[in-house]
TrEMBL record:
Signal peptide, first to last residue: 1-28
Matches recorded under Pfam families: LRR_1 (PF00560), LRR_8 (PF13855), LRRNT (PF01462)
SUPFAM superfamilies attached to this UniProt entry: L domain-like (SSF52058)
GO BP terms in the entry: neuron projection regeneration
Protein name: Oligodendrocyte-myelin glycoprotein-like isoform X2
Keywords, sorted A to Z: Leucine-rich repeat, Repeat, Signal
Amino acid sequence: MERTVHTTPTSMPTNLLLLLLFGVRVLAICPPICSCSRGHRVVDCSARGLAILPDSLQHNIHFLNLSHNRLKDLDELLNHFDHLRTLDISYNHLHHLPVGLPRALWDIRASGNYIRQLEKNDTAYHWNLQKLDLSHNLLERVVFINNTLSNLQALNLSHNKFWTVPTNMPHNLDTVDLSHNYLLQILPGSLDRLPRLARFYLHANRFNSLSDGVFSRLYGLQLLTLGDNPWACEDEENINHMLTWMQQTPAKILGCPCYTRPTCGEAHLATRRTWHSAAFTEPPLGADARHPGHRAPMQAVTSGYLSKSAQLNVGQYPSTVNTSGPGEQILIGGGGLLTSTPYSLSTQSSTTIRTRSTKKVLPDIARSTSRQIHICSFETTILGLLCQVLIVSAW
């Protein structure tokens, strides 16, 4: 005897409701409060007043901007984003680098928080990391483990509270920014494992002297900033060896101690200006996360290092200045044009324009006058012929 199983119609709406709920969850790949692009893999949730991580983030996102919010704790909340390459958590309320960040990250931006220290486990497993920005925090010490962060190339620790240069920094670093701290010394051997370091920013600290040979193992050094430090120039015994090294190194040095020269080496001096603000200008370490295509104005690595005279003088010049010859307009960071003679405007251009305009008008007048003469003579001829015809017909 066959038994027929009948499904109750009341279960159908329940199943349909569950299917719709799961379907909405799957389709909501971009949180409503954020903006997404590039197939919802670039997510911008910056400046949204967020206190918690938004829901419905797609698991295969590549770029996540959570900057300028009120986030306090992100521990273990981002570890499942296995394809995440760039994470911007700057300017939040974080007191430590989040635990459990994805190991696939290339770029971590965590500036402008309240981070006081970086423990060894915070970066121990980030083998793919290339850029780390921890500027504008409250850092007093960082701990790196040997042979970790092997791909890290740029480290920004500016605007913190360091008293000494960190040791055990990753050996493949190309750029290190330690400006605007409270640095007093560089321990012997701290820089010996950085043969690829090319740009080293130490300006705006509290150095008065440095030990002999502290930079001697930096074989790849190209740029070093030492300005705005209280160098003890009267202590010749401790300062002379550094001055001697500066004369021998091929690296460019900005802000030479003891005001011997504003810059050491003429390769980076401005060629068309009499003032040297451009010599203190370098591009920032990081780009704007929210505007990838935007070209940031030319500025110092840290804003405080730009020459005060440059900041004051830029505003005095108009945005566009006419010069006496081509090629004398120089683009500056304020968005305007600066010339070598900003106060004397040449009159040759305007005079030339007036002369050319006169030359252009005169031929037109001549041509119009000749046309009028030709027309008058033609009309006179016709009238003469008509008169002759009338006379002949009258006869």
